[in-house]
Amino acid sequence: MIGSLIALAALALVACGPYILDAYGIGLLIGAVSYTILASAWAMFSGPTRYISLATVAFYGTGAYTVAVLSDALPWPLVLASAAVIGGVLALVVGLSTLRLAGIYFVIFSFGLAELIRQLITWFEVSVSGTLGRYIFLDLEPRHVLWQLLSLAAVVVLITGWIHRSRIGLALKVIGDDETVAAHAGINLARTKLILFVLSSVLITLVGAIQSPRWVYVEPGIVFNPQVSFLTVIMALLGGATHRWGPVLGAVPLFLLFEWLSARFPDHFSIILGLLFIGVVFLLPDGVLAAMQKLRKKKEAAA
Amino acid sequence: MKNVTRRALSCYVSAMAIGLALPSAAFAAETVTIGYAVSKSGPNAGGAGISTIPNYELWVHQVNEKGGLLLPDGSRAMIEVVEYDDRSSAEDAVRAIERLATQDKVDFILPPWGTGFNLAIAPLMDRFGYPQLAATAVTDMAPALAKRWDRSFWFLGGGHDYGDALASLLGDLKEKGQINDKVAAVSVADGFGIDLIDAARPALEEAGFDLVVDTTYPAGTSDFATMISGAAGSGADTFIAFSYPPESFGLTKEAQTAGFNPKVFYVGVGGAFPIYPNVTGGIEEGVMSVGGVDAASPAIQEYFAAHQEMTGKLPDSWASAITYTTLEVLEQAIARVGLDHAAVAEEIANGTFDTVIGEVTLQDNQLRDLWLTGQWQDGQFVAVAPADRDGASDPVVPKPAWD
To answer: Are A250 and A238 in contact (CB under 8 A)?
Structure first.
């Protein structure tokens, strides 16, 4: 409860950013908040269930594409609502058909999902609408994008808080520890996983939708960039996917690190990203928070 | 003790000497900062690495070798570069522009590679008042975009320009009886391929052609046997592929393997790359593609030589020369009116510039004198359309057989 309040206060503080920062400062905040939401939403599902999902960009891109298609026809709030509904329905269909897959198969499927959606949209644009690449001309300034993202972040805080205190949170913990035990304890495995998957996917879809007006031009190659999925996973894992505040602790520092790297080592980004991946998986398999807790316990034991 | 003091003293003296030397050196070599964020990693890195980055580096190197950018008062200012990697992410490209404009406060910003990213940064460039010389954006929306952002300049035309030019070239060949009225076309299901085939379909029909094969394929396709055999069996004298580099190369190889020798063989992006002759094993003669250069022009020859010397490879014969042209336009505009953004934009819009592709004057913020179709002739990728423009070569049809 206190954690949620502190987090909401922090979000309110960030919302004042546009009054004191320049355009780049706001750009940084947008990037950091967006990755924080992505990582938190990812961890919401993948943390407790331990299903590594590489489908982040599938939903993120779907959100952006929805905006590109509907932004001329509908008022902005309705566009966002449509994006949420489309993301939710998509997640429902995908979840129903795949959440029975065991871990490794799910990873492969989720990676393929982004490609599948990308090809479906391409096919549709080529054979039905006869064009590829859509324009988004909306008069949304960066600070508006930031404020919308912050509102979404507040929703994430409230949802994660609710999950932690509710029966579904408890059920998830059991599922994460041992699915067989969970099933025997009377937990409806499929339904619990599905709810979480849909929830997490809707949030990710909305991030893509809110951010897309910044890009003006949208085509599948731009919005379905697999790097978004990889960065989200590495951020959540670094912070600790099972811990409620882990994703924030992973997303913000890593985002800033990447930003710094792109300026200092513009030619070596891919190599550094790869090394980082290996480092995180080997050295901090449960994330920074878990590692710190372990360290503290060791010290206490020694004392 | 004494020793220590002496050492301290010498430190102090040398520090003072450096301190004195630094400001004066900085004063003598006033600098102009040029910033850019290009895709150095991710899916766009290939295109950026061929058309954009080498030309930026070449230009900066050449300008600094001359002693810097010429300013209206006759002085020169060395160029200092601030560069970022946008990782092929639109969000990163946008943020990099925000960074260049408000943190680094660079004097000028060079655009990223590709249509999408040039569009992504356009509103920001406009808001911060920077002129944007988009060298690698192909969009039919250019007239509207130039009106929307009046400091944006579009140098590479739109899909319709290329599609229409090819159709009219083929129409002429048909009139002369050099090819029959059947055309086999394949196109990649991605921005470039769709724009061009959409433009070419009605234009070809109007020119009296029968599109006997009209297939699209997803980007990244690597098996072209069916496409080529379908085209070979169609009776068409003309094969058109509005393709991207990997597929342009794959289709060429497959045509060679299958012994498919149409009278006109046209591939999309990649056909004008300097490595294309290697792809064909040195039998590229007669292949047509997008772009082209006036190979007889001394300015172009000089540019090709300088590019090879500085970057170790030849430029491509489509967007490279245009990219270099935008840099020359910027350089000359600065020499005439200085560093003020409004004045430079005004000069780019209305001035006339002497560049590697000849004399350049923009029409409504767009470069309209473009080479739209080229052909490999004697080891060079020369321009063949528009045929009525000075410097155009005559197309060689039928293309000599592979082998």
So the answer is: yes
